[in-house]
Amino acid sequence: MFRVMKALEEDVARIKLFLNSIEAVKTIDEVVLLNASIILDDEESIVGVISFEQFSKNGLIRYFIFKKYIQDDIIRELFESMVETAKEYNLESLFTIIVDHDVSTLFVELGFEEVNKEKFFIEEDNILNTKYRDSKIMLMPV
């Protein structure tokens, strides 16, 4: 049985341990983890996490990572928990930068739509002029 909850400040160290066990995660932004929601298993081990980084009235999805055996309804519950946190911050939208296009189906199922990259900037640069030029940008209102 799994349990989804909003992470507490005292969960940050355990979230970092979980993320450090994931080969694809190279760096961890602890501040972003304060916005996280987590999935716990029967032993209270973290088996999934999602968070966002706030940019004005928008949130960039960060660390949407879960063990492969987690069922779709639990993944949706994890996502919805994070959306509730985004609402507490009065965010207007959530967006994601998708490098692995196979993942875009999940985001479509969660309510995201692809947006025009020509109008998307990272800092001062259009995304088409960055290392993310081949990525998909997807957005959903909160």
What report would you give on this structure?
The protein is an alpha+beta fold and 142 residues long. The protein has 2 domains: 1-90, 3-Layer(aba) Sandwich (Aminopeptidase); 92-142, no CATH class. The protein has helices at residues 12-20, 30-33, 72-88, 104-109, and strands at 3-6, 37-40, 46-55, 58-66, 93-98, 113-114, 121-122, 125-126, 136-141. The strands form 2 sheets. Strands 1-2-3-4-5-9-6 form a 7-stranded mixed beta sheet. A two-stranded antiparallel sheet has the order 7-8. Strand 4, helix 3 and strand 5 form a beta-alpha-beta unit. It starts with a strand and ends with a strand.
Element-by-element helix/strand order = EHHEEEHEHEEEE
* Name of the CATH first level of the largest domain: Alpha Beta
Average of the residue pLDDT scores: 93
The end-to-end distance, rounded to whole angstroms, is: 28 Å
| Count of distinct strands | 9
Beta content: 25-35%
* Class from secondary-structure proportions: alpha+beta
Strand order of the largest sheet: 1-2-3-4-5-9-6
Shape summary:
globular
Helix proportion of residues, in percent? 25-40%
Largest sheet: 7 strands, mixed
Alpha carbon gyration radius: 15 Å
Count of separate DSSP helical elements:
4
Q: Name the CATH homologous superfamily of the largest domain.
A: Gcn5-related N-acetyltransferase (GNAT)
Secondary-structure map with pairings?
Blueprint: E1 3-6, H1 12-20, H2 30-33, E2 37-40, E3 46-55, E4 58-66, H3 72-88, E5 93-98, H4 104-109, E6 113-114, E7 121-122, E8 125-126, E9 136-141
